[in-house]
Amino acid sequence: MWVWFSKLGSPKWFYELSGKWLPWLIAAMVIFMTIGLVWGLVFLPPDYQQGFTSRILIVHVAVAGTSLAFFPLMLVAGTITLVWRMKLADMVAKHAAILGAWFSFITLATGSLWGSVMWGTWWEWTDSRLVSMLFQLFLLLGVISLRSALEDSETAAKACALLSIVGCINVVVIKYSVEWWNTLHQVASPVSLDPSSPNGPQFWIATLIMIVAVYLFLSVSLILSTRNEILERERRSQWVQDLVMKS
Amino acid sequence: MLDAIQFSSWAEFFDMGGYGFNVWSVYALFAILIAVNLILPWRKKQRIVRQLKRRLTLDAEIQSEDDSNGE
Questions:
Q1: Which of A2, A112, A113, A225 is the S-S candidate for A95 at Cβ 3.0 to 4.6 Å?
Q2: Nearest C-alpha neighbor of A166 from the set A126, A125, A132
Q3: Which of A228, A232, A244 comes nearest B56 by C-beta?
Q4: What is the number of CB-based contacts under 8 A between chain A and chain B?
């Protein structure tokens, strides 16, 4: 276990292993993404109340749900960085913050595009779900700017881990906000197996496929960025130079 | 399967039951999210490898010139 753990922390080992995983992850991502998009745009029937705006929701729910994974991921990575001095975990945390900010922004934008026709408003300051998601975006932008402002990587890792704790608490607030303060944003629809039901399988299976597709995309993007970071930080090491000269 | 297609014309497909702007904007944003976060890291890798390769080749040339001067 410990041999495996310290190996995993080695950038070279991660680079080689992720190089083997990447083609499979990319293939799976393309398959799920294609099924999800074709289903969502061509086959998904209109909702009896929302019409075709239900097609917005399969994307919105997949991106929004996945955006909640970033702060927990950054907290785990931050802890590993500080406790076991693993450089690799710090690289993952750095790029997770950037990707997480993208996810949060797209969540807010797609939500607005749905709300503008279904709620009749683009934004509502009194809704807890909307405001806590906006807070997550600002927190992530804070983490990104903190990292670029702090020269010392140790201090940066500590500050970001601290903000990740706040971010994780906020993730819980986002998750339960619709139940704690029932204002504008609706709660998740109950899942039904009955095809004739408005919440029937055609909606939630399409959403599920999109969620898998989005998680695969998250992994691919994060691995690509982390591999770049490894190449840059390890550019003086022999294995990187050999790799570059061979390519 | 073809029966399940919800549209009978391209115009209907783009219109999305009157919600065309909102639906297509969402899918466009989604496409941007994916494209940007896959293409940028991919292009960055090309750049890193290209620059490092150039530097290493340059270093190797300087090294071999020094060696030949030394003789």
A1: A225
A2: A132
A3: A244
A4: 96
pLDDT in tens, A168-184: 999 999 998 888 887 78
B13 assigned to some structural domain: no
Rounded Cα gap, residues A82 and A87, in angstroms: 9
Q: Which domain holds residue B51?
A: 39-71
Question: Which pLDDT value is given to residue A49?
Answer: 80
- d(C-alpha A153, C-alpha A147), whole Å: 8
Q: Which of A228, A236, A242, A243 is best to mutate for the B interface (most B CBs within 10 A)?
A: A228
Q: Mutual orientation of helices B20-70 and A54-67 as an angle, nearest 10°?
A: 40
Q: Contacts for B58-63 with beta carbons within 8 Å, 24 or more apart?
A: none
What predicted TM-score, i.e. pTM, was given to this entire model? 0.90
Task: List residues of A whose CB lies inside 8 A of any B CB.
Answer: 33, 37, 40-46, 51-53, 55-56, 59-60, 63, 99, 102-103, 106, 109-110, 113-114, 116-117, 217, 220-221, 224-225, 227-228, 231-232, 235, 240-241, 244-245, 247
Domain annotation covers residue B54: yes
Query: Per-residue pLDDT tens for A102-116?
Result: 999 999 999 999 999
- What's the pLDDT tens digit per position in B11-69? 888 888 888 899 999 999 999 999 999 999 999 999 999 999 999 889 888 888 887 77
Beta bridge partners of A47: A51
